[in-house]
Structures are given as structure tokens and as C-alpha cells.
Amino acid sequence: xxxxxxxxxxxxxxxxxxxxxxxxxxxxxxxxxxxxxxxxxxxxxxxxxxxxxxxxxxxxxxxxxxxxxxxxxxxxxxxxxxxxxxxxxxxxxxxxxxxxxxxxxxxxxxxxxxxxxxxxxxxxxxxxxxxxxxxxxxxxxxxxxxxxxxxxxxxxxxxxxxxxxxxxxxxxxxxxxxxxxxxxxxxx
Amino acid sequence: xxxxxxxxxxxxxxxxxxxxxxxxxxxxxxxxxxxxxxxxxxxxxxxxxxxxxxxxxxxxxxxxxxxxxxxxxxxxxxxxxxxxxxxxxxxxxxxxxxxxxxxxxxxxxxxxxx
Lengths: 188, 114
What we know:
The complex is a heterodimer. In chain A, 66% of the residues lie in helices and 0% in strands.
């Protein structure tokens, strides 16, 4: 824990315990989403599914990256991940992204994916609103994640024909163009 | 139970919510399109308080797990719209939010908590 790192945030008027609760829930949602997206990805097959598979993989790896990037900040602020992974899954801040009843229903799978991303967009918008102008480091991190979640939503939303966004998928799988600067151990 | 006065309408601007206790019962008020709705104040998913819940159109969004409910009916919207329909354990998480009748009287919000 960074003593002054937490103190400056408290003195700026942020309730750090509430913020930590949101960050840990967000990290839980990223971790569980990584798991569920793995199942969705392997089931994305056939004429429609194979095209979707690479986009799921980008979002899957980047969600794992978000978990990696959030974790140090949680400990810097004096928080901790739950010791029991079952408890961690239970407090995840977004519902689990289950494989649809019919795994061959690609539209149903897309709805699972787009709703999961929308939940993430709301989550990080809340954290940005809470930390804006007060906790610069958490704000920058949450904003970087938000950028990627918004793009994930756009990818899946376009697949559902909800309108163009101008985004395109990554050059390399799970490249995390916004978040990788917070992952100094993983990216060169 | 008769209607009880719980707030002033001006305290709940459009797209906002207000969490309060009425006679020990948690209640949340929500303004959707200029009309005020009242529901039980705990999310049926895990009984967490809806204090600080945000509004997205007609949906109230629980701050804990982002379960969403239609304030006009109390029905779960998300994740009910994507959860598989063949899993009883998951379906049990989608209990509706209890709604209450609301009347506006001279700018005051009255709720029937029956």
C-alpha cells in the first residue's frame, strides 16, 4: 500500500473504501468475463461464428489485461483481492456472460457479449465520475479501460447491425492500445 | 396501508433516484420521463440496497452487480434478457422488484407501501 498515495485521494474528498469496493468488483467482472468469454469463443463456430471468434478473442484478452491493470491500483490504495476466488466471483460487478441455451444461436451469443460490454462501460463511467479531478491515477486507468470497453461494445453492436462506429479490430490479438501503458510487466 | 408522504417531487429530478427508509422499509424513488415511480429499496438479486442506483431510460441499475429493472413494472431486464432460460438457479436470480403506487399531491410524493 502507498500511504501517501491513499492519503492524497482521501484528502481530495474520495471515499476510498467505496472506491476500492468498485475497483474490486470491476476486477472481479473482468476476471469472470475472461473465463466466460473463453467458453463463448470456443463455441463461436460455423459460417457466422468463425468471423466473430477473433473479435471475442480481442475482447477476452483485453478484459484479462484490465484485471491485470486494476490489481496493482487496488493494493496501492490499501485494498486486496478476496482470498477465496469463489467470493471474488460472487462480488463481480457485472452478471456472468453465460453461453446461450442454444450455443449455435450466434445472435443470442452476440447479445450476451454486447450486454456484458455495456455493463463494463457503465462500471468505468461511474469510476471516472467518482475520481475525476480527485484521484488522477485511478481516473487515468479507468478512462483507459473505458476506451477499450467502448470499442468492444461497438464491435459487437456492429455485428448486430446497430450501426457503424468507425472502429476496427486490433492489429494483434488483445493489443490493449489504451491500457498497456499501465501493464509495465507485460508489454515492452 | 394508506398512502404516506415520502418526499417532495422536486427532490427527484428526471433520470435521478432517491433512496430512503419509510417506517424502517427501504424504498427507492425514480424519475422516468417526468413521472415518479417507487419500488422496494433492495435489489432482489442479493438484497443489496439500491442507494446510488442510476437510471437508463426506464431501467434502474443496481450499483452492486448492475442488474437492471423496469421501474414501471419491476421486471428484471438485465441480465434476464441474456441469461439462458433453461437454468433454474439463474432464473431464481431474476425475481422482480416490488413496485408501489405513487400519487403526486401538491408537489409531494405519496406512496402506498402495501
